[in-house]
Specification:
- 2 copies of one chain form a homodimer.
- Chain A is an alpha/beta fold and 510 residues long.
- Chain A has 2 domains: 239 residues, FAD/NAD(P)-binding domain; 152 residues, FAD/NAD(P)-binding domain (3-Layer(bba) Sandwich).
- Chain A has a 10-stranded mixed β-sheet with strand order 7-6-5-2-1-8-22-21-19-18. In chain A, strands 12-11-10-16 form a 4-stranded parallel β-sheet.
- In chain A, α1 packs parallel to α11.
- Chain A is globular.
- At the A-B interface, β4, β5, β7, α4 and α13 of A face β4, β5, β7, α4 and α13 of B.
- Chains A, B: Keywords: FAD, Flavoprotein, NAD, Oxidoreductase.
- Chains A, B: This is Pyridine nucleotide-disulfide oxidoreductase-domain-containing protein.
- Chains A, B: InterPro entries: FAD/NAD-bd_sf, FAD/NAD-binding_dom, NDH-2, NDH2-like_C.
- Chains A, B: Pfam families: NDH2_C (PF22366), Pyr_redox_2 (PF07992).
């Protein structure tokens, strides 16, 4: 099938099709775009990034086991897809249009954005103001995910590394490798046959720079700690043997136990594995501030100082802080949740008299997470109030919400994971394809949870079974060659696994 | 063999070895470091970048046929190598030390640096001032290459793209893909079934942005034009079919003919191939200035305006200008060439009386290229003048110059190519290994020249034979799996060739 251009329409073919506009290209939006039948719908993806990231392997790319592009799927490689790169800035539910600010001219190495102002526009302001334009829809799927939660803690936004997008992985990889290189300059030596000058970094400086602090004991934080351990002890140990004695990896979490989604036995196995590898796990520790270290260590080497409540005024030094604590609603969702709109009187309920006082609607917001509430069919829920009728809760026609930004009214406990997002997307796409969206409610089926622990060990837990050790690791690797990947990447990922195993990880700092 | 750390010395083993300090990690420096016998010498590479780039495939990475890291070889993967990342800033030939400014803390995605001031420090000033330290040597090999020649033309340094380092290739790849994305936003359409707003970019704007201007008709410029043509017509054509009509690729050169190293017949074959592909070649055109376009096209989309002497005041628009015109001496070489030094009287000539007026030396500089002159054994040549003796030309003990920064006194016609650099490096390393540096002079053996022309065609010329068309292309690809690559990359490069052929080039903008 011939690939087609952005919004271009073949008049004989597409003008009769309904246009489904999808906001987001993550697990929810991309899976929906893939599954939706191009013969029945004109599909238009609006997303600030031009690709889908296979996030479970992000930590592997951040340590050089895999090459970055092997976990990316460009949206435009989907045959017949329409794509507009930009931030969805607002939605007019009355005229059925999405306002978009283009960002294709920005720095394309996208990274996790954290809003500087809770209800403002996306935090990392684009270098140039993009063009603003409107895209109309017949059906709209809001799948634009969530932002990293920083709890407003000082310095996190400015100084911490995140691990949610491919640009994050690249920056983190460069930073870790650069820290080792910075600590490797000629050491003071008892050998006086050469007149090398004395070093600028003391052993204490190196200890500060080679402390890797991970905040958040969920699967992302734990897997990154494990992969980082492998990188350092498999690869960097042979290149910088003198620096190993300065290395420390610490995982901080506020909860009394990490990996809350695993049962006690598996979580304990994980902690025992970490203990043997020398990775420290500090539960019930509350991070209060991150700031640059004083003097040349902070200014020239980017060292950080972390204030932890339990340690009082004794700050901890680190060369890098990886932040992975949870999610919050993104600015578009916050804006939509607070916004009042008036629909044409016939749209909400055709039985209502048209000459009445216009009813004011508002999308339902989940007070705990800030997400948008849907009914069991994944349709956006609205509260409509009119002077005479009080408030009614109905669904908004042709508007769906899936993934991290959605909360199902009768099942608010679903976690914000790739699994939930992709199952919702597949469910909705199939229903739309069949034209029976209001016939079958969404049901989550837990396929189990997996986490890599380093040294070829993993844990896996589902309702049916539990696995740990290298069998779980084999399962972990196998599971990642799923249908969410293109054939291209299904070929390349195992090639890189073999190449990294044979020759070591990619350590070139680029 | 166990890998060893930077300058660390195993006292039983290394203290007796001579230390060979190598400035640079390009074709000359890296090949020398690879070939020099670690059992006989302590090898220390000083280079601002931590890897060797296999430059003949740089254009392939710039269009996504190959992944960037498949053409990088980290210096630290050489067993037993010593490495200091930094700029060699000065050399004291008397005390035999190199002054280094560290740069491991800088942005590691290195790019071509062009000095802003002819004799100043490297142009792109590091974000932080690096640490300064001295490294002593027993033998020194200067192999720090050359800079891109801009002829002082206004705007080249600020607005042109270069193609000499891996960071250049990445920026160029992102820029080209971004230009297509920027031109792809919804077009004005006769279909009014959707209320999309009108576009901001006119057809003329798109024509300006999708003009790819390549300055310099040497192999780099020609190959990039060919690879860019393949990217656009093999891959982007299916994704952005409506944009093809706006695309133009133009190669500008001041000379009456491009590819001067090929004979008339092959150069004509190249031009005929380009003509069929729609690539324009404008010889005898002199670029005089590059500036940003006016208004939103320049500010928001980065469009450029090029002034060409032959066109008078009519400027040409372009979305990107690729600059590949030649080389000039880099700042260290310029500094060394102008510098006076005094050696211990015994060093230069043991027969000279010690109590004499000290003789002032100066390295010989090639007036045409600004490079350092060597004798036929690749030893740096010096002019020494003393009051009574006049000027003598001798060689400087233990200092060698190879690669783009070297000019051999009795063979000044050698081109500045990877072939010359790597042959010089291998020659010198083998002579040092054998301890007979002054026994055999360096002789260049021409292995032939190859250039890719797009559409699976290439040309190849050597003293023995000439090839053109797809046979030359097969030869071109085969020749690139040379011994200069690690086994890792010898595996990965063909994998990517196959993957790109099967599934298209990597088009994710990252």
């Amino acid at each position: 099938m011939r690939l087609r251009h952005c919004l271009r329409k073949n008049k004989d073919d597409n003008t009769k099709k309904e246009r489904v506009v999808i906001l987001g290209s993550g697990w929810a939006g991309y899976a929906l775009a893939r599954t939706l039948d191009p013969a029945k719908f004109e599909r238009v993806v609006i997303s600030p990034r031009s690709y889908f990231v296979f996030t479970p392997l992000l930590a592997s790319t951040a340590v050089g086991t895999l090459e970055f592009r092997t976990i990316l799927e460009p949206v435009r490689r989907l045959p017949g897809i329409g794509f507009c790169q930009g931030w969805a800035d607002d939605i007019d539910f009355r005229s059925k249009t999405v306002r978009v600010e283009s960002n294709a001219a920005d720095d394309p190495a996208s990274k996790t954005v954290v809003p500087s102002d809770p209800v403002g526009p996306p935090g990392a302001a684009p270098k140039v103001k993009g063009e603003i334009f409107d895209i109309s829809y017949d059906k709209l799927v809001i799948a634009c995910g969530a932002y990293s939660q920083t709890f407003g803690i000082e310095g996190v936004r400015e100084h911490a590394h995140f691990l949610r997008d491919i640009g994050d992985a690249r920056r983190l990889r460069l930073r870790v490798l650069s820290l080792f290189e910075q600590c490797s300059y000629p050491s003071s030596s008892t050998d006086d046959s050469h007149q090398d000058t004395r070093p600028h970094l003391t052993d204490d400086d190196k200890r500060a720079l080679l402390h890797f602090a991970i905040v958040g004991g969920g699967p992302t934080g734990i897997e990154y700690a494990a992969e980082l351990h492998d990188l350092i002890y498999d690869d960097l140990a042979t290149i910088y043997p003198d620096l190993l004695k300065f290395v420390r990896i610490t995982v901080y979490d506020v909860a009394p136990k990490v990996l809350p989604m695993f049962d006690q036995a598996l979580a304990k196995y994980a902690m025992d594995t970490f203990a043997r590898q020398g990775i420290e796990v500090k539960t019930q520790h509350h991070l209060q501030r991150i700031r640059p270290a004083d003097g040349h260590l902070g200014k020239e080497h980017g060292a950080l100082r972390i204030k932890i409540q339990e340690y009082g005024d004794d700050e901890v030094s680190a060369g890098v802080v990886i932040w992975s604590t949870g999610l919050m609603a993104n600015p578009l969702i916050q804006k939509l949740a607070g916004k009042e709109f008036v629909l044409p009187a016939t749209a909400a309920d055709p039985r209502e008299p048209v000459d009445q006082q216009p009813a004011i609607s508002r999308l339902s917001k989940d007070p705990r997470t800030g997400g948008l509430v849907t009914d069991a069919f994944l349709r956006a829920q609205q509260h409509t109030s009119s002077n005479d009728n009080g408030t009614k809760v109905t669904h908004l026609n042709d508007v769906f919400v899936i993934g991290d930004c959605a909360v199902i009214a009768n099942d608010k406990t679903l976690p914000k994971t790739a699994q939930v997002a992709s199952q919702q997307a597949t469910h909705l796409a199939k229903r739309l394809n069949k034209g029976d969206v209001d016939k079958t409610t969404f049901k989550f089926r837990n396929w189990g949870t997996m986490t890599y622990l380093g040294s070829w060990k993993a844990i896996h837990q589902s309702s049916a079974d539990e696995l740990k050790g290298w069998i779980a690791w084999v399962f972990w690797r196998g599971a990642y060659l799923t249908k969410s990947m293109s054939v291209r990447n299904k070929l390349l990922v195992p090639v890189y696994w073999v190449v990294s195993w044979l020759f070591g990880r990619g350590i070139s700092r680029f």
